[in-house]
Amino acid sequence: MAKKPIELLAPAGNMEKLQAAVYYGADAVYFAGPSFGLRAFAPNFSWLQLAEAISFCHRHGVKAYITVNVYAHNQDLEGLPSYIRHLAESGADAAIVADPGVLSVVKAEAPQLPVHLSTQANTTNKLSARFWQEQGVSRVVLARELTRGEVTEIAKAVPDLELEVFVHGAMCISYSGRCLLSKFMTGRDANKGECAQVCRWNFALVEEKRPGEYYPIAQDERGTYILNSRDLCLLEYLPELVEAGVRSFKIEGRMKSVYYVATVTKIWREAIDSYLTDPDSFQVKKEWLEELGKVSHRPYTSGFWASGGGEPRPALTHLETSKYLRSYDFVGLVTGVDPGTGAFEVEARNPIDRGDRLEVVSPRGPVQEFIFPLERVNPNQTFTLSYQGLFANPPQVWSLLRRAKKS
User: Fold this and answer.
1) pTM of this prediction?
2) What structural domains does the chain harbor?
């Protein structure tokens, strides 16, 4: 067995995504209340929704961490003390903070509430980790810029401090997500949750005395996406993450779809369980990687994890385009199952036509395929099918139906 328990931490941009994360195997979820988070354009949770979400998590044995990781200016501090008290009263399992001032308010208003230090605080060394521990932080979300060796050294230096690491999802071309490009170029402050994703834009070179004449930065007449980062995927390094002392495996994606959250959480759950069952013989399965390729993503990279020690650094950016790779469409959600009749009910999320080859992704168990037998259904329509004669095993509530993209 692993030396330390492993927590799988999944994102939740709304209640449906939170439920998907829980049903597909997360040990904990992170999400934002109505204020002070870094995803201003996500739906986030009202106070009523937040209380319902925390209660739902706890009924399923899952922890709920609330983001309070805004980098606050003076005018942003109004209402923070009462906000923190309300979080604690709602039963949150931790507050995720980045700003020392915000941390001081948490300690003053809700000293019983555990504090996790956000990756925005860019903790990159063992002395910083120890400093934050001394300030009352129980967990540090380490900077994405760290190598395997650096994480190992930090874990050894502060063995009683929980370490959390991003293992999957989008990355920023910035220092620990602390980016000024968006505010500088659009007025939207990324450090207050308003990122315009300037790093995904197409850039070209302009000489100051020749306005309007655009020169490509790379050998491509369309220009280049020089700041467009790849997506992180550390699945093949799971044993190394555990051995390095990482306590919590964090998936990025509060702005991603319910299909993304469910699928990525499912694969990481299966991989972690496989490792815990037999660490010595753990191997990454081909089908896991295939599944991760079926969600919307940019080309994957291992980031900085394997850098150092003479190993070549993997590509961190994708220069040709900032578009996502999307090979499958999420077309339906199973909302009810009647074991007695073999019938299951589906809410359509995209159009489905007779003869479409669909795949059923369940919270547990293998992916199953069938040919859709009904006439066309449209988004938001509900329909009922019998699984008997379509595929072997009954679907589970919260199973997802998907279809390869049509050419």
Assistant:
1) 0.86
2) 7-171+230-301 (3.20.20.70), 328-404 (2.40.30.10)
